[in-house]
Amino acid sequence: MPSGLPELPPVFDPILHLREGQDAMRRAIALAPEKGAGCLVWVSALERVEAAVVLEPEQILLAARPALLCAANALGDALVALGAPEIPVTIRWPATLLMNGAEVAALRLAAPDAAEENAVPDWLVAGFALRLAFPPAHEAGRTPDRTALQEEGYDDTTAADVVAAWARHLMANFAEWQGPDGARRLAEKYLARLEHAPWQEGARRGIDPVSGDLVLERDGQRERIPLAAALELAA
Predict the structure, then answer these.
(1) Is 118 exposed, middle or buried (0-12, 13-18, 19+ CB in 10 A)?
(2) d(CA 211, CA 226)
(3) What gap in Å lies between CA 173 and CA 185, rounded to an integer?
(4) To which H or E segment does residue 228 belong?
(5) Which residue, of 20, 48, 53, 161, has the greatest Cβ tally within 10 A?
(6) CA distance 194 to 205
(7) Side by side, which strands form the sheet with 204-207?
(8) What are phi and psi of 134, to 5 degrees?
(9) pLDDT tens digits, residue range 115-173?
């Protein structure tokens, strides 16, 4: 098992396990032009795991950006499958994962610097960073807005388990998104997990089927929260 992961579908190739302290997202971005779709890079330490995968979209960048929503929902699916199903796993717009209302992971999406909104990008990279445990000196309850898998009862879940589960659920989410009525299905699954933040109070929520923008409707008014802008703020 040279990749350090359980066996994955052959679409993930190559699989690179980096040394502790390296950056999975940065390495995947550097490898994307050479290795292409399916290159999976991951790195772990006692307290943290990161993974990133190279994608080669067929849509223009505007329409390919909802891949981030797929990736976030896939990580949510993975955590539910690995842990107790009663633990609430939600998403804070656009791609922060929460467990019991506390932040446990964040996802990113990268494109080439020169990529244009209305052109097909050469590649995209979707990745996540997840907190496995707090440092030994961490005081319980000191950071109620943050949590870790071990705090939520995932005592036997390893970094490799998380990466492999995310990769498998990522394939399933992408397949559903690209299938019949895929944009609606993605929106329904994503919105079912999206937390009800105060700034969304009283609004009917939707996802633009083309761009992945969050759309809020209240009192006869429509407000659009661009996904692209949210990604720039998170970068």
Answers:
(1) exposed
(2) 8
(3) 10
(4) helix 227-234
(5) 53
(6) 10
(7) 204-207, 214-218, 221-225
(8) -85, 160
(9) 999 999 999 999 999 999 998 877 766 788 999 999 999 999 999 999 999 999 999 99
